Amino acid sequence: MTLQLARSSVGARLADLEISRAWLVDPATGREGPGEIVVTDGILVAVTWLEGADADGVDAGGVIVAPGFIDLHAHFREPGNEDAETIATGLAAAAHGGFTAVCVMPNTTPALDEPSVLARIRAAAVLSGSPVALLAHGAVSAGRMGEQLAALGELADAGVVGFSDDGAPVRSASLFRNALAYAGMLGLPVVDHPEDASLTEGSEANEGLVATVLGLRGWPGSAEAGAVARDLALLAEVVAEVPGARLHLTHLSTGSSLDLVRRAKAAGLPVTCDVTPHHLALTDEWIAGARRWSWEAIGSDGAARDPWRDGAITASPFDPSLRVNPPLRSASDAAACIAALVDGTADAIATDHAPHAEVDKAVEFGLAATGISGIETALGIVLAAVDAGRLPLATAIAALTTGPARVLGPRAPGGDRPRGLVEGAPADLVVFDRSETWSVSPDALASRGKNSPLLGRDLPGRVLLTVAGGRVAWEIDEPTSD
Ligand SMILES: [Zn+2]
Questions:
Q1: For residue 424, how far is its CA from the centre of ligand 1 (angstroms)?
Q2: Model pTM score
């Protein structure tokens, strides 16, 4: 592989780049293999697939070139909680993670429930100089209070890509039904955080062995599956009247809720969903101090193994960085998240990047703010699953590119252009090296949120270069070449 790095500053147009003898992954056409790309003046001018002797020695274990990733779900905390993250630091973290487009959630202060808040965060994105595309979901309800609908039409005109009260579910079924109908008329999805809050009040960790042993209050899986079932029942009725109605369920974490989506899709309902990197690879036993991946926590009989009997406990229990909503689940739920990606039930991997200031995390486990700072570790976690043979590389890349683009529809970055390696279009891509690891540390994270349970761990897949809209978004310090 030869890679001449751009050595230009973030935000600058990528004048000239040639990558030869790398492994190209193009999810738009389903093709992957040895190839070369050339970028001139920000435009991807040539994509060449190598064959025969030219392709010798190039495999999928080294440098990968793929379209830039799209994150359907991130929290950048501005306005209102800039100690945790700003638009500028969030966009820098996204670029470091290989993402060239990010949809931020509206649970800021004030909430993104009217166009002036969108204008404000867009201004912050322009000021940051980052070329990463900042997209936003508008709130479903005014102030995210769950009482009356936000100004959905005005928000749609201003350019939001969907509607969500994320951070909390929409408790009122009748409000949710109206939201599905109005958003459907506007051609936009409603993105729900499915949680029956009456079942999760005071909950601390997934209901099961780990919560019982540690004395944490259980968080039942039925709180998610029940909310998913409600949303699907409402969608089935609304779509009969409003054919454009669309539901997107975010951060599904249990086998039973994914089964509901699988059946709804088979019945033809317009529903999509995503899973997070942490729910597919981490489990509740991490709270007890285990540090093995989810697929290592399942025995040959398919049953979850007991971390205490296995001697799998290697860290202190109650790390507050592991408190997340929905909670880390069992190994079999994590396996269900992976299976859903493989069979297409899950359309996307979304990070639910949730940075927090240290003061909100350095407390007792059950009092810690929920969320993981995850946009920079997403690729590494997903590649760990690929390395373990649990997820095909092409499926993983599609779940980070064409999958989320399909959820966004015409408002995806690049519009109707396929999310692939498209000659003649502005270069929008990520280059990473699967053979290189990087060490997750507070200094290595561009995010202000250092609340990652992966601190101190080495992850595969170092991002070498991220290019968004023909401009440099991220570049490693030292050039590599062999
Ligand atoms: Zn959420």
A1: 37
A2: 0.97
